[in-house]
Amino acid sequence: MPARSMGRSTIMSCRLKLMFREEECKNCKLGITMGRIPLLPRSSLSTSICWISIIWRKLRIISGRGRAGPTLGMGAPSSNGGYGAATPAPVTVPMEMSYDHLPMRGYKVFDAGVDKKGVSKVVQKIREFNQDVSCNQLSSDEVGDSLDSLTNTLCITNRYHSSTISTTELMPLRKMILKWDVSHAFPALDLARMTVLHPDAAKGERKAYWKEVLDGALSLCLGLGEAASREVAAPMLTMRLVCNCFKGGSGAASAAESLLDRILDCVEICVPSNNKNVRLAVATALLNTSSYMYSSSSSSVSSAIRILDLVGTIVGSGKYESEAVGRILVALGTVLLIPGKCGSDAKQAARERGIVSMMERVASGNGDAAIAVAKEIRSILS
User: Fold this and answer.
1) What local confidence, expressed as pLDDT, does residue 87 receive?
2) What secondary structure letter does DSSP report for 196?
3) Residue 103 in contact with residue 337, Cβ under 8 Å?
4) pTM of the full predicted structure?
5) What single DSSP character describes residue 73?
6) Is-contact 111 194, C-beta < 8 A?
7) pLDDT value of position 46
8) Could you tell me if 289 and 327 are in contact, meaning their C-beta atoms sit under 8 angstroms apart?
9) ∠362-363-369 over CA atoms, to 5°?
10) Nearest-CA neighbor of 351 among 374, 331, 378, 324?
11) CB count, 10 Å around CB of 109?
12) Which of 58, 133, 165, 226 is deepest in the core (most CB within 10 A)?
């Protein structure tokens, strides 16, 4: 009989027969049309059973009630005979601790005196010393127009985003720092400290220029040797220049990164300074160095561990004021949080050196902020 004239009981009977006699499907020569159920011709009962069962199974699969067999991405079998939605495997994401004071992001700068009064004093001193040096004097154009043009641009701080500084204006600074002796070059160090904060002066294309200038400044400071602890101008201004290089444009920051070992050499000879302004500059140089290392993908393990040792020397000296101590503690905590192997090795080195107890002792006498940072350092190393 035609399929449409079969009753419900007949269909159910056919389904049961097919479940136990699937081999009869092999005798069926009929195809299934796309989305349509054709009438069955008058044929044998086995052919009818085959057709009805195939149609029934297709309808159950479409409605989600039939078993079509598991496929990739399907969940476990559900109670109604189908398969539930895919359940993703649980993913364990390690929690990253957050702290109120650590790590240091950004940089502290020394930008005092970048105004007409402050800059004019520096230029006046440069012109005075230019008369005293026995060789490598600035030319009349350099000591005149070039310096005037540079300082005029530096004084208008609200136009830094649009103003530019030419190479001609920068060359007198390079000449003084590289060619003059330390007793005459310190005003140039101060002017360089101001200039490097100008975005155009410190842009990426000027990395080579700032590498020369900064290396020259470091050489002046290192040349003092043990006397650096008694000197003020050159050590203080060199450390301030280092601090501002990290904040300046990408050219100056890259120059500082390439000279990191020499920067730490200079910090080391300045650590015992008897002058509080030098000590604050030293602490800030370590702070900015650690901040740069934290944000850099090329942090050196040896540099990180060296910072730990310098911090230990500083806090062990008992000479540093509260503001400087606070910056030193943040520098230490920032180094400990450097991602990857550098930070892991720094943590291990800090544990071996008993840093936690040392930091807590020095923090206890330097205010609530220092105590809070010391507690976070303990948490990092626990």
Assistant:
1) 55
2) T
3) yes
4) 0.75
5) T
6) yes
7) 52
8) no
9) 160
10) 378
11) 18
12) 165
Q: How many residues does the chain have?
A: 382
- Asked whether 103 and 333 are in contact (CB, 8 A), the reply is yes
Q: Give the count of beta carbons closer than 10 Å to the beta carbon of residue 96.
A: 6
CB 51 within 8 A of CB 40: yes
Give the DSSP per-residue string, 119-179.
HHHHHHHHHHHHHH-SSSPPPHHIIIIIHHHHHHHHH-GGGTTT----HHHHHHHHHHHHH
Q: Tokens 């976070």: give the residue.
A: 376
Q: What would the pLDDT profile of 134-166 be if each residue is shown by its tens digit?
A: 899 999 999 999 999 999 999 999 999 999 999
Paired tokens of 323: 């503001």
Q: Is the peptide bond prior to 103 cis by the omega test (within 30 degrees of 0)? A: yes
State the Cα–Cα distance between residues 183 and 180, nearest whole angstrom.
8
Instruction: Assign 52 a pLDDT band (cuts: 50, 70, 90).
Output: low
Tokens 């544990």 belong to residue: 351
Q: Which of 41, 66, 61 has its CA nearest to residue 51?
A: 41
d(CA 243, CA 253): 10
CA 314, CA 292: separation in Å to the nearest integer? 20
> Which amino acid, residue 45?
L
Q: Which long-range contacts (CB under 8 A, 24 or more apart) does 111-118 make?
A: 111/194, 111/197, 111/244, 113/190, 113/194, 114/154, 114/155, 114/157, 114/194, 114/197, 115/155, 116/155
Write the DSSP assignment of 322-364 as a string of letters: HHHHHHHHHHHHHHHT-SHHHHHHHHHHHHHTTHHHHHHHHHT
Among residues 192, 103, 154, 107, the alpha carbon closest in space to that of 377 is found at 103
Rounded to 5°, the CA angle 162-165-167 comes to 150
Cα 262 to Cα 35, 61, 251, 259, distances in angstroms: 79, 74, 18, 5
Query: What's the pLDDT score for residue 42?
Result: 47
